[in-house]
Design goal:
- By secondary structure, this protein is an alpha/beta fold.
- Strand 14, helix 9 and strand 15 form a beta-alpha-beta unit.
């Protein structure tokens, strides 16, 4: 798991590392190596341009240019502010190294014609909009039309808030050292980062123990391995309470995702009108269908059999659905994933979330605004704070969905570090609710189940986008990518 730090926290970690005996020159050399590694891995660096500012961020870029030249590849450096401009001590050392290596320097702000541009103009210490020579360099990078690799943070993006107060670089990739910076995961800045890679250069960040965390692929090993000695009961029974008249698709997607994510049994509780379609779409699921007169008694019977309950996908908002949700809240003895219309019902009818069973709520900003009686702009401007406060006040794990979804139980916080616009499509949330339900059914701790599910869901979306582009994947096709993701988690049973 990778910590997500403010600029102040990162500087503090850097200082403590140096005080512990790690020379700053060594750390800068490692940062330069990380830049080169990403250049060589993802770009054509045969004619690279390094645009280097006056601080340590520019020093990283200058030293990377020196190392690239020393390896036998020509490159060009543009010095922001010129060679006589005041520079940090580390920057000056890197400039000397680049000069000694024989890199080519240019005064031209025409940045077109290069194979790649390395943005090392402004680092995490920058405040406010770019100004003066920095602004000129940022504009030139934007006008250059070449692929861009940003060092630590795209210049012009606030590393703490993600705000873009003026001109800003829109990178194809950002390589950031030691930890994620908050602004790389917050809108609108996240949209300027492209692919973000965290490079370990040996700065310990463990001292920031209360910092939010981002999962890595290796962290998915928190999903339990499937024992050889097992049966369908070993992996739990997920009850999906979903689907109103004309909305059986939501129930189908949630149930299918639960099965794809490892649940042993899935039961769908839905209205009678959906029975035939669901039994055709997903014959593996048990379908319990109700009429108005027997919904309560049938639901109570289904609840007694459930290991986990997912409620809300396609449920609609009305008196009938309200009665179902209210009964479930009052009588369910299993963990509950509360999604979609169940959230809207909770808000509309002022229902109180259960506190005697674990709950996971999965609102998007609009649903969260209704839950806390606020407006969407407030939620969007403070996603992390809203998720944490709601979790503390309600006792539920909150999954606040966004470009980079936030997961909090009021104490721990995880932020999803990957995403794709392919998931911005109807049915995507239904799939996520099913994944969370399955992970709870196999015994995962709720906050970890939610965090792992969000990450798996995003990886499945990325896999679907790689196969058919970001425009085209349907929620069901994202669901079909879940096996590919989980296959890599545990390559053998135990």
């Amino acid at each position: 798991m990778i910590p997500i730090l403010t600029s102040a926290q990162m500087r503090d970690c850097d200082i403590k590392c140096i005080q512990a005996g790690a020379p700053s020159a060594v750390l800068m050399s490692r940062a330069a190596d990380a830049v080169l590694e990403r250049l060589r891995a993802d770009f054509d660096c045969t004619n690279a341009l390094f645009v280097c500012g006056t601080g340590n961020n520019g020093g990283d870029g200058l030293l990377a240019a020196a190392k690239l030249k020393e390896s036998g590849t020509d490159c060009t450096v543009y010095l922001v502010g010129g060679s006589t401009c005041r520079r940090s001590e580390e920057n000056r050392r890197s400039l000397d190294a680049a000069t000694a290596a024989g890199v080519r320097f240019t005064d031209s702000t025409d940045f077109s014609g290069y194979s790649v541009t390395v943005d090392a103009v402004l680092g995490i210490g920058a405040c406010g909009a770019p100004r003066g020579a920095g602004l000129e360099a940022v504009k030139a990078i934007c006008a250059g039309g070449t692929p861009v690799l940003s060092v630590d943070v795209p210049s012009g993006v606030d590393s703490d808030s993600g705000e873009i107060p003026g001109a800003a670089v829109c990178a194809d990739e950002t390589v950031t050292v030691s930890a994620y910076k908050r602004g790389l995961l917050l809108a609108p800045g996240v949209g300027n980062c492209g692919k973000t890679v965290v490079a370990d250069i040996g700065i310990p960040c463990a001292a920031c123990g209360d910092a939010p965390l981002a999962l890595e692929k290796d962290d998915l090993e928190i999903i339990p391995a499937r024992p050889i000695v097992s049966n369908k009961g070993t992996f739990g029974r997920v009850l999906v309470v979903a689907g109103s008249r004309g909305m059986c698709g939501a129930a189908y997607l949630s149930a299918k995702a639960a099965y794809r994510s490892g649940a042993g049994l899935v039961e769908i509780f839905t209205c009678e009108e959906n029975r035939a379609q669901l039994q055709t779409l997903i014959p593996e699921a048990i379908v319990t269908a109700y009429e108005k007169t027997d919904a309560g008694s049938l639901l109570r019977s289904s609840l007694r059999r459930a290991t986990v309950v997912v409620v809300g996908p396609g449920l609609s908002v009305g008196d009938e659905s309200e009665a179902i949700v209210k009964t479930l809240y009052e009588e369910c003895g299993a963990p509950i994933v509360i999604d979609a219309d169940a959230l809207n019902i909770t808000a509309k009818y002022s229902l109180t979330l259960p506190r005697d069973v674990p709950c996971v709520v999965t609102p998007h900003p609009g649903e969260m605004a209704r839950l806390i009686n606020s407006d969407i702009s407030h939620v969007v401007s403070d996603l992390w704070g809203c998720a944490e406060r709601f979790a503390k006040e309600s006792g539920a794990v909150c999954v606040l969905k966004s470009e980079r979804s936030v997961i909090s139980d009021g104490e721990k916080m995880f932020v999803n570090s990957v995403g794709t616009s392919a998931l911005a499509k109807g049915g995507s949330g239904d799939v996520l609710s099913g994944i969370i339900g399955a992970f709870l059914a196999v015994g995962m701790i709720p906050v970890y189940a939610a965090a792992a599910a969000v990450y798996v869901h995003s990886l499945a979306g990325i896999a679907a986008a790689e196969k058919m582009g970001e425009y085209s994947p349907l929620a069901g096709e994202v669901c079909d990518m879940i096996p590919q993701i989980l296959k890599e988690v545990h390559k053998k049973t135990v």
